Amino acid sequence: MLEEKGFNIEEMYRFEKTFQFDSWCNRMKLTEKEKNDLTEYMLHATLNIKKKFHIEVIENTIISFKGEAIIIKARKI
Known about the structure:
By secondary structure, this protein is an alpha+beta fold. Helices cover 32% and strands 43% of the residues. It has helices spanning 21-27, 32-43, 47-52, and strands at 7-20, 56-58, 61-76. Strand 2 (56-58) and strand 3 form a beta hairpin. It starts with 6 loop residues before the first strand and ends with a strand. The mean pLDDT is 97.
């Protein structure tokens, strides 16, 4: 998408990052219903999904999960 808008990608780094669940939900501006739905989905996810995202649960509360983040250095051509 950046290239389509006339940017040249000079560097790109992709890495795993731990996200604190509550603060992530707030940054994503999830409604209370969306947060509850996501919580239920994550609590009842398959073992493979829980392992993939390193979902940390304490007393039925999601504490954190891992996802991918990206840093891109690009210049307008």
